[in-house]
Amino acid sequence: MNSSKKMRFWSLMVLVSFLIVSGCSNTPKTLDRSVTGPQVIVNPESIRLGVAKLMDTIIVFEGSGFKPGDSMFITLIGPNETRAIVAEGPIQPDGTFKVELGKSSINKLTKAMEILKADIVANEKFEPVVVISQPPIPKGVYTVKVTSMLSPLTAETKLTVKGPTAIDSVMDWIGKLTGKIERKKTK
């Protein structure tokens, strides 16, 4: 490896180390067991619209106080009349649910399509590529609304959607260089 490549490699390693160390977050919220009616929480309480950051973020929705055996869906309601259905799932026998928007293919697709307003395609090596062709949902404070499918029960909490940071922009730039993120111009 020549010295230029070594320098780039070590610079990238320092940046990645910094990002890992600076990624510490607040204490996660927990359900209030004294509440008997429907409730929902989301962790983390805020997300950023950097493509690489969001795709790597695990968003967890938890709720309680719903009818056992029912199902529910989760909608983000926010600025400019934005509505995005981001999850669905069963209610457990104890009236609770837990849904993760994690790193699985379907969860990444949901985050890409509903939050980033992007697509995911496969490259020639059959690896996923996030294709950005329009702006993501607007930043701001969103209402996370859980709606029961078989009963009139609902619950709400807040989720803050922030714009990308300078570090997010660097990570997205690296994603573009490595072929993991692609930006397409719309006509």
Key terms:
187 residues, alpha+beta, 35% strand, 5-stranded mixed sheet, 3-stranded antiparallel sheet, 4 helices
Over the alpha carbons, how many angstroms does the gyration radius reach?
Answer: 19 Å
Structural class: alpha+beta
Label the overall shape: elongated
Q: What gap, in angstroms, lies between the N and C termini?
A: 43 Å
Give structural notes.
This protein has 187 residues and is α+β, with helices and mostly antiparallel strands. It is built from 4 helices and 11 strands, in the order H-E-E-H-E-E-E-E-H-E-E-E-E-H-E. The strands form 3 sheets. The protein has a 5-stranded mixed beta sheet with strand order 2-10-9-4-5. The mean pLDDT is 87.
Write the layout of secondary structure elements.
Layout: H1 3-21, E1 39-43, E2 46-48, H2 51-56, E3 59-64, E4 71-78, E5 82-90, E6 97-101, H3 105-115, E7 119-122, E8 128-132, E9 140-148, E10 154-162, H4 166-177, E11 181-183
Parallel strand pairs: 2-10, 8-11
Antiparallel strand pairs: 1-3, 3-6, 4-5, 4-9, 7-8, 9-10
Short description:
The chain is α+β, with helices and mostly antiparallel strands and 187 residues long. The chain has helices at 3-21, 51-56, 105-115, 166-177, and strands at 39-43, 46-48, 59-64, 71-78, 82-90, 97-101, 119-122, 128-132, 140-148, 154-162, 181-183. Strands 2-10-9-4-5 form a five-stranded mixed β-sheet. The chain has a three-stranded antiparallel β-sheet with strand order 1-3-6. It has a three-stranded mixed β-sheet with strand order 7-8-11.
